[in-house]
Amino acid sequence: MASSWRAAADGLAADLARVFGTRLRSVCVYGAHVDGNGADAPITCLALVSSLTPLDLDACGRAVHGWHRHGLATPLILPEQEFARSLDAFPLEYAEMQRAHAHVYGHNPFDGLTIAREDLRRACETQVKSHLLHLREEYLEAAGRPLAVAELVQASAPGFAALIRNVARLHDVDHRDRATATREGARLAGLPDGILADVLALEQPAGVTTNDPARLFPEYLAAVEQLARFVDTWRA
To answer: Using CA atoms, how far apart are residues 29 and 49, in angstroms rounded to an integer?
Structure first.
């Protein structure tokens, strides 16, 4: 684990142990820092407990300012049973945590975790079609202004790349490396190599000039439409 956030994660676990005692079951770091892309992003953590009361929330609330000061986001604290019973409600979110997480305290809740394939497909379909609807709507609002279109493509590209990785997950592709997972998802969905390279570049803050995203829009829109068709007709 990266030393830059390990100390903060250990400190969070110690604080939670003081609040919950033996009721604290596990703490994991997940997301950008585990992926190696965290840099200045807050450190995101999941904590599972056997029970969670208003008094516990009050105690944790008093510690939040200190956690933020040490670069931590407010942790996601869940009772174990609630976590287990919400896998069908948030399959993509938990699958992404499973893909990129680091165990800090207690047992690892992602060991042996299985998320139903149909739950993943349904969530993928909802997210892809929502992305497509918003992309068209925001393009209309851009009214053909190149800078506005460029900003739209630039801002939405990381979300599109995440959707492609979710499609890869439907096929049990679960690479820790983001770029590898994105490329494999694009291959499975039949997306053109060119637009994939551009999307991966757009995930980086200085990936392309501001003129490039506007030029990419027609091909980008076609790729999102293709991804929506693929997920809509996907069967295990």
So the answer is: 15
Domain count, the chain: 2
pLDDT in tens, 70-123: 999 999 999 999 999 999 999 999 988 988 899 999 999 999 888 898 999 999
3-state secondary structure of 24: strand
Write out the residue range of the structural domain in which residue 163 sits.
117-233
Statement to judge: residues 129 and 190 lie in one domain: yes
Q: Which residues of 169-184 are buried (b: 16+ CB within 10 A; e: fewer)?
A: bbeebebeebeebbbb
Q: Please compute, for residue 13, the number of CA atoms within 13 A of its CA located in the half-sphere on the CB side.
A: 17
Token pair in block for residue 163: 């959707």
Residues in the chain: 236
Q: Which residues of the chain have pLDDT under 50?
A: 1, 207, 209-211
153 closest CA partner among 227, 209, 93, 226: 209
- On whether both 161 and 97 belong to a single domain, the answer is no
